[in-house]
Each structure stands twice: as structure tokens, then as C-alpha cells.
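[Automated response] Your request has been received and processed.

Submitted sequence:
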Amino acid sequence: SHEMFEADLDRVRQGSLSPVLRDALDAANLADGETLVRRLGERILRDKGYFALHADPHSRLMYDAMFWLHSHLRTPTSYEDFVHLPAGQVDYGRPCYLIMIATSLANHPYGFCTGGYAEGFLRDWWNDRTASGTNDRTASGTIVAVDDAYRLTAEYAAQLVSALRAIDGETS
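Generated structure:
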């Protein structure tokens, strides 16, 4: 409904950020980082009518952005390490995808949140980004294993920031 869209738009534009996302933006030292992430969120919302990440290009760009930002706090050793909370974690102390944008902890909720995630879409994104020879030839191999952990290639990290800035100039 129109009311739900407006509520989502308010959350994307002004909702509080996860403590992990806030820390990652600070660590990335990208002056306009919050604006870029919010603009991408708004683009996703306007494209779909709701704020959720799937397999579309803008969602995949958000996955890329979350991975890149996460890597400024810690370097994940696997898909599971990037996505999931460790067993027993009940705070925002160790970063992971889930508490960056997908879900809030009950004792400390935040507003800029998708409210869940689709495991299949996220896993497909990871497999495409870490593999060579996939359907997405422009992006495959953009996440590489380095010293038993995963990082974006330097080239793709620069392209990612440019792509985020390009969203800024798009019209609805």
C-alpha cells in the first residue's frame, strides 16, 4: 500500500543504521558512504515497491557494498563467516551481514533494515563473486581468497564506489 511504501521510504532515508554498518562506514573513510548506501536502498525500494534484496542488479550491488564495508572491520574466511552470527553472540560486537542490514538484535533494533534475507539469492551472489566462469562474467572472481580469507579485488572495490556514486545521479 501507499502507506507501507511511505513508511519504508522513511526507514531507508532516515532510519538508524546498524552499529556494525555505522562502524564499517567510519572505517571505510568514505565521506559520502551513508548517503550512497541510503540512495541505493531507495533505488531498490522504488524499483520493487518494498525494501528487500534479491537477485536483481541493485540488490547485488548492495550485497557488494555490504561485503566491502564488512571487510573494513574484519576479513571473512567463508560465506558463513561473512553472513552469520557466531553461536551465542547476542550483541553487535562481531560484524556479519545479518546484523549489518538484514536483521536487528531485539535488545538494540535499528531502522535501515530489510527485515530478513533470502539465503538462496545471497548464496548465489557469493558463488558468482567468488567463482570464475559463471554467467555473470562482469563480476565473477571479484571476491578473491587472500591468506585464507576473502576480499574484493582492488579494481572491483574502486568500480563499486563508482557504481554507488552513479546511483546518486539516476532518476526514478
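Summary generated for your ticket: The mean pLDDT is 91. Residues 2-168 form one domain.
If you did not submit this request, please reply to this message.
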